[in-house]
Design a protein that fits this description.
By secondary structure, the chain is an alpha/beta fold. About 45% of the residues lie in helices and about 15% in strands. The chain is built from 19 helices and 14 strands.
Length: about 450
């Protein structure tokens, strides 16, 4: 159904036609249903602007359709309209279509909402919203936008200060589905290996459905992730060859600290500045996040030392890793060192997901690691919780040094052998992922 026809039906309050909502129909047809989690359970009724960012195929457009339909159900005809950024060629067209829709809102209604999907497909979209807001045309409307070009949305949002109404929060990140959800719906199938099944999906709804239905990841779904990342890289003028080289270097280094200059050399990039730009783009895509070394004496992260590069979207790591892991058995057959690397990234993804959900995206980017000449701790969270990751067995005798170095701190060890002392607690990967340890950021 085209957008004009859809908006005509929305103006009349007619929302029961099945061909209006193909994404919703597909969503409800899945063999297992996952809810969307990104910190926005109910849309506000006051005007403003909401920007929802996140990876492709995480369900943003489906969530938008559900919210659009629910608005009409709750508040009546003419309270919500829709635009598709993928079908709008220019900022001028966006301005025209938006201005044409504004008079269509029903007079006297309590709620007015304009949903714009994939707004980052439109060059200069933020200038249009800024102008329309300043002119007063959007002052009574809640504008809800989604997009997968994370860089454009992030920078665009920064250009809209003071134009987001009185909303307490305006920027949201679409997150991987939680392990709690995955466990509730899939543990009967995967049993004690449920957490490993979650690992190879990265919490991507599409990959979770694949694994549940077929017990493996389909190449078509993995290719969607590859195409999205490569499409973003190439569209920015960067090289397909060098992003492949960069991914392979990140896999080789795993959880080992490395400087940008060395990363550039190993990837064939001209210099560390170029390597930094590639990593920044991968961070904007919520794929890879640098983890800087924590200086305990100054209580800060330091950027002049080598850092770790953690995948915070394991679906991206799966899509580009040369081992082509598509099933639980293929993951289990990986070398122990490789499995340890994947577990560390799973913990990184979960720390990032929880911190983004409970605190902020900015704080989620402030995860570091600690290192001395003798010892190293994999993660220092924004709340200064120390987390170490071990693939195999671990016990308190492995960390007798920790209370001496950090007498006022606690260490959490993610390993296969749970234990607990006054300063150190060992939990299994599943225990770490489940809510009963959600007090650990």
């Amino acid at each position: 159904m085209n957008v004009s026809t859809l908006n005509e039906l929305l103006a009349e309050g007619k929302i029961d036609s099945p061909d209006m909502w193909p994404r919703i129909s597909e969503y409800h047809s899945k063999s297992v249903l996952f809810e969307f989690e990104f910190g926005l359970k109910v849309l506000p009724i006051i005007p403003g602007m909401i920007i929802v960012r996140g990876p492709r195929q995480f369900g943003k457009s489906t969530w938008l359709d559900l919210s659009l339909r629910k608005t009409i159900e709750e508040f009546g005809p003419g309270t919500a309209f829709y635009l598709n950024g993928d079908e709008i060629a220019s900022s001028e067209e966006l301005s025209r279509l938006t201005s044409e829709l504004i008079p269509s809102f029903k007079k006297g209604v309590r709620v007015k909402r304009l949903f714009i999907d994939e707004i980052t497909a439109i060059p200069g979209w933020e200038k249009v919203l800024k102008r329309l807001w300043d002119q007063g045309e959007l002052r009574e409307i809640l504008v809800v936008t989604t997009g997968s070009k994370a860089f454009d949305l992030r920078r665009g949002a920064e250009r809209l200060p003071g134009r987001k109404g009185k909303l307490e929060k305006t920027n949201y990140v679409f997150l991987p589905i939680s392990y709690e959800q995955f466990h509730k719906r899939c543990s009967d199938l995967f049993k004690e290996k449920t957490w490993m099944a979650y690992l190879i999906t990265g919490g991507s709804p599409v990959l979770c459905h694949d694994l549940y239905q077929h017990q493996k990841l389909t190449e078509s779904s993995v290719q969607i992730t590859r195409d999205w990342v490569l499409g973003e890289i190439i569209a920015s003028g960067r090289s397909r060859v060098f992003i492949h080289n960069l991914f392979q270097a990140l896999f080789r280094f795993g959880g080992t600290p490395v400087g940008f200059a060395k990363l550039a050399r190993e990837s064939g990039l001209a210099n560390n500045t170029l390597a930094t730009e590639y990593i920044e783009q991968l961070s904007d895509l919520f794929a890879v996040l640098p983890s800087w070394q924590w200086d305990d004496s100054r209580q800060i992260l330091v950027s002049h030392k080598p850092c770790k590069f953690n995948f915070i979207n394991l679906g991206v790591a799966i899509a580009f890793h040369k081992s082509s892991i598509r099933s639980l058995s293929e993951f289990e057959n990986q070398p122990t060192e490789t499995k340890g690397m994947w577990l560390e990234w799973l913990v990184a993804q979960e720390i990032w997901r929880r911190t983004t959900l409970s605190r902020s995206e900015e704080e989620a980017e402030q995860v570091g690691f600690w290192k001395s000449k003798e010892h190293e701790i994999d993660f220092v969270t924004p709340e200064k919780t120390f987390i170490e990751v071990k693939w195999g067995r671990a016990g308190p005798l492995d960390f007798t040094w920790f209370p001496k170095v950090f007498p006022k701190s606690q260490l959490l060890v993610v390993c296969k052998t749970p234990f607990e002392t006054n300063h150190i607690r060992g939990v299994t990967p599943e225990e770490f992922l489940l809510p009963r340890v959600n007090d650990i950021p």
